């Protein structure tokens, strides 16, 4: 049975969590990255399709491969982040459905319509990326998601010859509080929601 989280947990995940623009030198272990993924993968996706794919860029050599694709304003914070996650989605995610959703021929739902496959993969892959950010926060990391990069360059450098394509990028590590911007406003319930 689901129970409400306490105020401290909600602060960690939402109310006090901030998008990070700078990082401390504290490293992030591969074991912790595995824990982040193992937690994030438990979030729901339609028909358990799980189209997201993640490249954890953590070596200087891999960072240099990513650097030419970054917008100028994103270079420093990405190059100094302990880990940069290239969040991608697999265009042929449906090939995994016989194992992921064995109680129906779910693969056939997508092989006949490239449009449905694309929409499903993009939507659910983005959802899984949000789970990854929350999982990282839940396990003591900070996150800095961003979309300032050249998609074609990332795909060419990291996904050439594969069925993966980049969605966005997330820096992970321990944030430098002095580099955080002031909290920006959010839309009020009545501005963003209706009750039907």
TrEMBL record:
EC numbers, comma separated: 1.-.-.-
Name this protein carries in UniProt: Putative NADH dehydrogenase/NAD(P)H nitroreductase J2W36_001889
GO molecular function annotation: oxidoreductase activity
Protein transport as UniProt keyword: no
Domain Nitroreductase residues, every copy: 18-174
Keyword NAD recorded: yes
InterPro entries, sorted: Nitroreductase, Nitroreductase-like, Nitroreductase_HadB/RutE, RutE-like
Keywords of the record: Flavoprotein, FMN, NAD, NADP, Oxidoreductase
Enzyme class, first EC level, given as a word: oxidoreductase
CDD domains, sorted: RutE-like
Pfam families cross-referenced by the UniProt entry: Nitroreductase
PANTHER family: MALONIC SEMIALDEHYDE REDUCTASE RUTE-RELATED
